[in-house]
Amino acid sequence: MRTLNVALNYSASDETPATASFPSPVALPFRVLDAEGGLLTEGVTSLLTPSNVTLPDGDGPVFVRLTWPSGKTQTKRVNFVDRASVDVVFSDEAIGQSGWSSWAIPRLNERTPLVEKPPLSPLPELTKFGRTWLRLWQYQSTGWNTVPLTPVRQFSDSHAKQIDLQLATGSWLLQLGGVNVVWRFVSLPGAGMCRVLITPRDSNDPRADSLKVIVTGFRSDAETLLEFLSRDSLRAAKSMANFKPLAIRLLSEKVDDPIAAVAGAYFLLRTESSVSVPISWFKNLSNFYPWMPDAAIVFCIAQLRAGLPTDDSAHSTRSLLEEDCQFLRRDCLC
Amino acid sequence: MPGTHVLAIGVGNYPHLIDGTGPLAKNPLGLAQLSSPPVSTQAFIDWCLAPLLQESSLGFQNPNCPIASVEAVISSAKPMSVSGITGPIPVDSATKVNIENAFAQWLARVASNDNNIGVLYFCGHGVMVADHYLLSEDFGSNSLQPWDKAFDLSNTLRAVEREVRGALYFFIDACREVSRDMALTLGGCPLALMAADLKKPVIRSASSLVHATGEGKLAFALEGKVSRFSEALLKALSGYCGIRGAGSKTWDVDGETVAYAVRKLLENGNKTANRRQVSDQTISGGSIPLLRSSVPPKVIVRLDLLPEPMRAVARMYLKSAKGAPYEDTGTSGPYITEVSRGFYDVGANPTGAQFGALVFEDQDIFPPTYDLIMQAT
User: Fold this and answer.
1) What percent of chain A has pLDDT over 90?
2) Which chain A residues have any C-beta within 8 angstroms of a chain B C-beta?
3) Identity of the residue in B284, B306, B364 whose CB atom sits nearest the CB atom of A73
4) What is the least distance, in Å, from the CA of A193 to any CA of chain B?
């Protein structure tokens, strides 16, 4: 057997502020492939915990491929010549040069103008969108209200604008719009420090918004899991969640960090693993955090997937819609 | 033994839509006849049946879950038939009642074994509001209830996943433009082919829904040709996608793999097409392969060199990690070739000293396409 130690040195792009409420280190999935591209093994490596995997004996090189949430990959060739164990380190030197915006690059398309390299075509600049405005909304007992947008820190250049916000527990929305920008709302994670980066879209998809908004609450593992799920990269998400334990941990720790718990819940639902945890976990998540719409949504989905019980009025469709989704109902126009 | 059961629905002939042969619907929604769906559906069916008709043919391949049945309804300006083992088989038209009957038979077959795979392919008109609605041939025949002759795909899928334990694949080649007329019609919502009983749990093991286009968008085809989505789908399924899992001997195609390949192939087509089309997918559950092959997938490779005059004095190449070399013949255009999936060194060497040799090591040449533009200095 051969051993591979895969480590991550992403210090340049890890700018987690000391005031982050639920910091978790950057963790990314990797695969070990043979020369034909066949999978030998897979795992997850993080800033704090390098991964140690064993490979069957064989000839020829193997290739370790690290996958970013954007789908972009970094690959390293490994030759085991006369060695039973090899160390592989992935670093972020290339993206670290982007300074304050480098944390967002793993979540952006490789065409992003934030990565400095000789362009084959002119890079889009924020100025082409004219004046773009931002507005911060908070959900309070009386409904949604605008509150002053007071960044703790902010940076900007011709390709991106970044703000750090300290948000109280609760629901928050960032609204953005402009003469050349379609108005929209972006949900922000409350209960701690939150960072928002706005940059021209990095995709050729005609459905993509003209401005891309990247948000982090510095919950790296949960956010990376959600990024993979949103791109239907289930295989990478499964590697991240190591086939359930991470997701179950995130959901079980809902009292500590409900937003990470929702990420775990979404993973379990998407991979049909929700049966491996009691339905009461989803219900508790919904009951504990009525201010968080996703908590009600994941409970509704879990209940619908499990089949609605007919003999328990507390779990009826009506109660799902009227009690568990009360947050949504209060704000709907009908 | 489990098997794969296919339901293929193609609707090109709409007598009650614009330029149709019957009385025009009260509100045809601006929709006209389609020439592509019959051709596309026939191509899909031919691909499914090809290995049954001739063993070495390119088509459906899954020794663990071979093709067990193909149920088809197609509406075309002229009668359609498909090639069966015993000769041409006439195909019923895709009226609402025929679709309902075909669906019922297909569903019963898929549900008959917990390890069966169900495939539903549709090509024809579609519109959406919150859910996606597909139009059968006789849409608009009843002026009082025009939507009676359409069906609700979204709720049909919600029903099917409560009836079938095996894996489900849905390939929906239809527009998803939001219909204002429909949104402003009360009581106009089409019914699902089967009602979804929410008291029942979701029991399917995996579900892959691949749409030809995104919400609110159109899907395209050239007149009388296989549509862009179906062409990309058939290409992807014909050896241009697949992964080999740890310890596996076969290259498998599951929902995530095929959806990625279709998206990439459509993206490739967008470079030359007048109108862009981007597919959309929803993948849930485990990875249960639709196809299994003993051969690694192929990758369409396109290497280019800038500035353009350098192409004529360059030899662009790929060299696999196992040693197999591929080199262009010195033509002035981009180097386009096909290679097996794997890791390669990719580069360009000058024939003289016109530029410094370029090499990109350990490129992961992943299906279905690989593009690289090199810059000579």
Assistant:
1) 23
2) 33, 35-42, 60-61, 63, 65, 73, 75-77, 118, 120, 204-207, 232-235, 270-272, 304-310, 317
3) B364
4) 32
Q: How far apart are CA B193 and CA B186, in angstroms?
A: 20
Query: Closest Cα partner for B5 from B83, B108, B151, B155?
Result: B108
Residue type, A119: P
Asked if B148 contacts B107 with a C-beta cutoff of 8 angstroms, the reply is no
Query: B111 and B103 in contact (C-beta within 8 Å)?
Result: no
Q: Which of A73, A204, A272 sits opposite B285 (nearest CB)?
A: A272
Distance CA A217, CA A24 (A): 10
pTM of the model: 0.86
Query: Contact at 8 Å (CB) between A84 and A62?
Result: no
Q: For residues B125 and B137, give the distance between their C-alpha atoms in angstroms, rounded to a whole number.
A: 9
- CA B246 – CA B252 distance, rounded (Å): 11
- Between A42, A61, A310, which is nearest B199 by CB? A310
Beta strands per DSSP E along chain A? 2-9, 27-33, 39-46, 51-55, 62-67, 73-78, 85-91, 132-140, 143-147, 153-156, 161-167, 172-178, 181-188, 192-200, 211-216
- Integer Cα distance of B97 and B208 in angstroms: 26
Strand order from edge to edge, sheet including B280-285: B67-75, B4-11, B117-123, B167-173, B206-211, B280-285
Look at A308 and B244 and tell me if their CB atoms are within 8 Å: no
Sorted by sequence, the CB contacts under 8 Å of residue B42 that are 6+ apart come out as B10, B74, B80, B82
Tell me how far apart the alpha carbons of residues A27 and A24 are, in angstroms, rounded to a whole number.
Answer: 9
Convert the pLDDT of each residue in B201-243 to its tens digit. 999 999 999 999 999 999 999 999 999 999 999 999 999 999 9
Is A117 exposed, middle or buried, given 0-12, 13-18 or 19+ CB atoms closer than 10 A?
exposed
Q: What is the ipTM of this complex?
A: 0.84
> Using H for helix, E for strand and C for coil, what is the string for B316-359?
EEEEECCCCEEECCCCCCCEEEEEECEEEEEEEEECCCCCCCEE
A-chain residue closest to B208, CA distance? A232
Question: Which of chain B's residues have a Cβ under 8 Å away from the Cβ of A61?
Answer: 321, 343
CA distance B268 to B369: 8
Cβ burial B118-130 (10 Å sphere, 16+ → b, else e):
bbbbbbbbbbbbe
Q: Where are the alpha helices (DSSP H) in chain A?
A: 93-96, 220-230, 234-240, 245-252, 258-270, 279-288, 293-306, 317-319, 326-331
A219 DSSP assignment = B
Largest CA distance in chain A: 71
